Amino acid sequence: MRIDVITIFPEYLEPLGVSLLGKAQERGLLQVHVHDLREWTTDAHRTVDDTPYGGGPGMVMKPEPWGRALDTVAPPDAVPQPRLIVPTPSGRLFTQEVAIELAKEPWLVFACGRYEGIDRRVIEEAGTRMRVDELSIGDYVLAGGEVAVLVIVEAVGRLLPGVLGNADSVADDSFAPGPMANLLEGPVYTKPANWRGREVPPILLSGHHAQIARWRRDQALRRTAERRPDLIERLDPALLDEHDRAL
Ligand code: SAM
Description:
Blueprint: E1 2-7, H1 19-26, E2 31-36, E3 49-50, E4 60-61, H2 63-73, E5 83-93, H3 96-102, E6 107-111, H4 120-126, E7 132-136, H5 146-157, H6 168-172, E8 194-195, E9 198-199, H7 209-227, H8 229-233, H9 242-246
Parallel strand pairs: 1-2, 1-6, 5-6, 5-7
Antiparallel strand pairs: 3-4, 8-9
Helix pairs in contact: 2-4
The structure holds S-adenosylmethionine.
Family: Belongs to the RNA methyltransferase TrmD family.
EC number: 2.1.1.228
Binding site for S-adenosyl-L-methionine: 113, 137-142
């Protein structure tokens, strides 16, 4: 997958070169290119913002640098066109389902807003030639889109084939599709079996795989019911067995 990020703070994206995603880039599974929006300004002050039409507080990102940046990073004659992701608190909520959808794309371009956001016409114009997704990472307001891009790229990147050492761990994750769809993952343990007088649940030491799977599912259901009853309401009844319903 190729990822381009356009931002006025390229250094904010440096963590993408670390850990799992850094290794994915070294192995050629992911290519990340970060661009400074100010490269596409034409004045001495490298201005990217201006006062909002209609008045009000704050500044708005100017359309000209954004238009030139997008035309350079994703030329209008490029085939195929990338999918443009615009982080914004007013976007569709970014979930694991959206991450799975984006992980299928060959090329994503991210446009990081700052101030009061990007002039609306930039998003409208881009939408005439590429698919545009405005995504929110939650119901709160960040100072800029860069942290949202880190969140989205990490969630998408770890789903790319070959990025995780053990692909099965994705299937067991919270929100993973399949039999555990929409469930939170239950508690996890490692050695030693007794730590400060606290025992690991004996079933996990039994070596009985079917019973362990059953125990994990029970724990996931209980935890989800306690912490996210909204997710329980959205469970597909067809995926629940007798044992689940008795819990
Ligand atoms: N005035 C905007 C509003 O109320 O919707 C908020 C602008 S915010 C200060 C600046 C930038 O941060 C946004 O353009 C967006 O790129 C990013 N941002 C802030 N909160 C976000 C969120 N919850 N999800 C995704 N991006 C966010």
